[in-house]
């Protein structure tokens, strides 16, 4: 049977089909002959489980490249000819044994096969359904096709016009019933009471063949292949769900790591910006020619791009600072501009005061205020600094940049700062994140364009490179984790797909028997895996987005969602799915139909 059906080659001799030497080893040519000429009726039915009956019937036509409209017409006509038109859309899994075998016969009829090979077609049927199946085979023979039945049943053999008995691989007898002929002429069934219609015929069916109607159509249409693959995926819901879940987990991990990489990078940038040293200071002497007046410097510096706050500080000589209760010897400081912002002071400000210090006002360190037994600032207390009276506008409770200020005093602008000669001046600025280096370069030329070199500027080192290294380290770690997850997912999916192919060996053997080429079988498995991958990729996108939200909300980060994650999820799913099915598709393409139809 395998030799006649071009599923296997004989060890000796030559097989002539329609006068032409034909071998199963001819590959694509043999597949084409099977598709055009040979129809199979198997003992085990070999239908597409979980799919509509019409899908099994049209399979041969599918691999012949017949258009969908033509396939539909032929399929419905074939199903109607076996009396099952109402079951065309019913799942094969719900059909009885007799109905399944008749659907298998309809598959041979739809393909206009000239040679029907029936392997124990009644082996799994009761007597009633067995009789119906034999009736259908007789009718096909009467329509002009050669029908060969392999059976162990004497009752089935009695209905044949020619009976060849083989025992232990040896030809025992070749008997022809009276009235039978090698070349029966198609007649109506009522006019052919004898059973000679099962005799091997040298002529084909009288009906037209779609290969003549559509010459050269041997390549399966891409849309048909997609539809076949999708229906195949849907027919194995549990298996497909498991494979899709594996892809979804892999894609979810990928999206999570990519999303967290972006979120983590943003968090690293935000953390660097929050803790970055944004302080720029400059010192010079008022003795330098062309120095600007102290009271105009803060406003001029704050006009520079990237400057958030600026103030000028002049250190006075050690003086006596006193209240009515106590006195201390400390070093006062004169401030021009926003000293609170520029020195990053925390001020417990009096309710009546806001903004920079004005002339006659002072900020007192909270430690000094305790020593001086200063009364509540709500009552606008005053202090004396070398005999000059200052109203206390607030208490310095924290000073990260100038920590000694908590034990000292800062007074507002004074006109007599340089009255006794030149003094050293310190400019304090706070810049925007990342602007410190730029501001440090601009300050000297802004304050003294004639002698900028006489000004000493202190700026923090550029942390951009360090931040980039940290971000790259985070991304590299997450990328490595992503690649590992993808490798594990592909390996798991590959194993699952190989197991699935092993369970579908009978179906694959049947597809090859009906004309599918090795390449087409490989493409089917690959497309199925790719479709599972795309669906799993969409599911993984949802899982990944949810995971990103959970992690970022828990860590109080700002979630970063890039629109590119959508195509990335589908692409990764496609790659994982197709990659996982690659080895399985190769194995499926190499399966021998003769061996697998027996399993």
From TrEMBL:
Transmembrane regions listed in the UniProt entry: 478-501, 521-551, 563-586
ABC transporter domain ranges (all copies): 1-193
Enzyme Commission code(s) on record: 3.6.3.-
Residues covered by region (Disordered): 174-216
Coiled-coil stretches noted in the UniProt entry, renumbered to this chain: none
Compartments reported by the entry: Cell membrane
Listed Low complexity bias regions: 192-204
Membrane topology, as annotated: Multi-pass membrane protein
Molecular function in Gene Ontology: ATP binding; ATP hydrolysis activity
A matching Pfam family: ABC_tran
InterPro entries referenced in this protein's UniProt entry, alphabetically: ABC3_permease_C (IPR003838), ABC_transporter-like_ATP-bd (IPR003439), ABC_transporter-like_CS (IPR017871), P-loop_NTPase (IPR027417)
Enzyme class (EC, first level): hydrolase
Name of the protein described by the UniProt record: Macrolide export ATP-binding/permease protein MacB
Species this chain originates from: Microbacterium oxydans
Gene it is expressed from: macB_1
């Amino acid at each position: 049977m395998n030799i006649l059906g071009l599923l296997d080659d004989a060890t000796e001799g030559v097989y002539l089909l329609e006068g032409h030497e034909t071998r199963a080893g001819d590959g694509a040519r043999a597949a084409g002959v099977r598709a055009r000429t040979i129809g199979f009726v198997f003992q085990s039915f070999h239908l597409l489980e979980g799919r509509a009956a019409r899908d099994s019937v049209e399979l041969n036509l599918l691999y012949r490249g017949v258009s969908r409209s033509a396939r539909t017409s032929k399929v419905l006509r074939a199903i109607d000819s076996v009396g099952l038109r109402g079951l065309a859309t019913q799942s094969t899994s719900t059909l009885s044994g007799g109905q399944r075998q008749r659907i298998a016969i309809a598959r041979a009829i739809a393909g206009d096969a000239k040679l029907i090979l029936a392997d124990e077609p009644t082996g799994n049927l009761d007597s009633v359904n067995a009789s119906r199946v034999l009736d259908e085979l007789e009718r096909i023979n009467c329509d002009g096709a050669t029908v060969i039945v392999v059976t162990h049943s004497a009752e089935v053999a009695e209905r044949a016009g020619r009976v060849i008995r083989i025992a232990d691989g040896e030809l025992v007898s070749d008997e022809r019933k009276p009235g039978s002929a090698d070349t029966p002429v198609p007649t109506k069934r009522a006019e052919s009471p004898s059973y000679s219609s099962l005799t091997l015929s040298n002529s084909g069916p009288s009906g037209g063949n779609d290969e003549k109607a559509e010459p050269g159509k041997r390549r399966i249409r891409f849309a048909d292949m997609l539809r076949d693959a999708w229906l195949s995926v849907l027919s194995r819901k549990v298996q497909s769900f498991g494979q899709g879940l594996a892809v979804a987990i892999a894609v979810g991990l990928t999206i999570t790591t990519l999303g967290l990489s972006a979120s983590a990078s943003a968090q690293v940038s935000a953390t660097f910006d929050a803790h970055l040293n944004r302080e720029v200071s400059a010192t010079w002497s008022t003795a330098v020619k062309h120095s600007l007046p102290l009271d105009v410097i803060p406003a001029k510096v704050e006009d520079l791009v990237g400057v958030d706050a600026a103030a000028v500080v002049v250190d006075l000589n050690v003086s006596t600072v006193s209240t009515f209760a106590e006195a201390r010897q400390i070093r006062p400081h004169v401030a021009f501009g926003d000293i609170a912002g520029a020195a990053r002071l925390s001020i417990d400000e009096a309710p009546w005061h806001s903004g920079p210090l004005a002339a006659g006002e002072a900020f007192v360190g909270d430690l000094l205020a305790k020593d001086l037994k200063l009364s509540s600032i709500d009552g606008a207390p005053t202090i004396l600094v070398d005999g000059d009276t200052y109203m206390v506008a607030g208490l310095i409770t924290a000073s990260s940049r100038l920590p000694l200020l908590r034990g000292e005093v800062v007074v507002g602008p004074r006109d007599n700062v340089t009255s006794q000669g030149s003094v050293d001046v310190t400019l304090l600025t706070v810049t925007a994140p990342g602007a410190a280096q730029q501001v440090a370069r601009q300050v000297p030329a802004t304050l003294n364009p004639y002698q900028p070199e006489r000004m000493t500027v202190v700026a923090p080192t550029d942390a951009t490179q360090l931040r980039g290294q940290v971000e790259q380290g985070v991304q590299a770690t997450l990328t490595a984790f992503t690649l590992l997850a993808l490798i594990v997912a592909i390996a798991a999916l590959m194993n699952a797909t190989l197991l699935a192919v092993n369970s579908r060996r009978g179906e694959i053997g049947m597809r090859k028997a009906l004309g599918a080429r090795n390449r087409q079988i490989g493409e089917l498995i690959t497309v199925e895996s790719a479709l599972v991958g795309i669906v799993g990729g969409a599911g993984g996108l949802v899982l990944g987005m949810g995971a990103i939200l959970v992690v970022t909300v828990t860590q109080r980060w700002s979630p970063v969602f890039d629109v590119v994650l959508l195509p990335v999820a589908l692409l990764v799913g496609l790659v994982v799915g197709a990659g996982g099915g690659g080895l399985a598709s190769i194995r499926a393409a190499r399966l021998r139909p003769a061996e697998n139809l027996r399993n």
